[in-house]
């Protein structure tokens, strides 16, 4: 697909999958850097400023669940945010002037990686306008068995579903049964290392546990138009401006009418894994993965 075809699919379905977006050299460099970063987890006993760990983690056998803000951890991750195979489409979606809103790397260790329940990113990260998107960079080969992400085509058209619990506050997950969401037509985003997907902030998505003997690492790069102001945290201006990827610094804020429900309060802090641990109903593996694996 050319740029316009990818953009049209994104507009119509809420996501686009780009096979072989990165070169073998790009992939090898990402894998090497990620191996080097995660090696620093050995000897650690608990989460810190860089790592979140799976419940089965030990200092001798680390199980990294997430690398937090990898754009601050190694310059390669920040450079990846402006890779032409990704950034040209991001600019077509968000406009010429773009900020890196956030980054993270979710890692699913072999036979240990946890699932993530169905959710919409807009519930976590509302802005003054919706010119935002998320690129997912597959660092390893990704299959259903090792925890591929799944998306619900067309869900970006709304509504914004409930991600709160009456007792626990924000749990960062949609109870698809209680809210009557049909996930039977979910699409599985699988591909070789170097594949990239880009999804809309309202697109419903989640991922299964890693049932395989192969790890699954995905770098998530979250983008926003430079005049889309975040409504979910207090901005420290110099740091905020340092993430501007294209265009001049601006204090102009563009406001558009969108449904917004702030992700507050949450007893679990900023981790989606910890927030979802409070969810009453865990549906993702039961309602999607089994169907896909039987197909």
Commentary on this structure:
This protein is α+β, with helices and mostly antiparallel strands and about 300 residues long. Helix content is about 25%, strand content about 20%. The chain has helices at about 5-15, 25-40, 70-75, 75-80, 85-95, 235-240, 270-275, 285-295, and strands at about 15-20, 50-55, 65-70, 100-110, 115-120, 130-140, 150, 165, 170, 185-190, 195-200, 205, 215-225. A hairpin with a 3-residue loop joins strand 8 and strand 9. The relative contact order is 0.21. The model is unreliable at about 290-295 (pLDDT under 50).
Features:
295 residues, alpha+beta, seven-stranded antiparallel sheet, four-stranded antiparallel sheet, 13 strands, globular
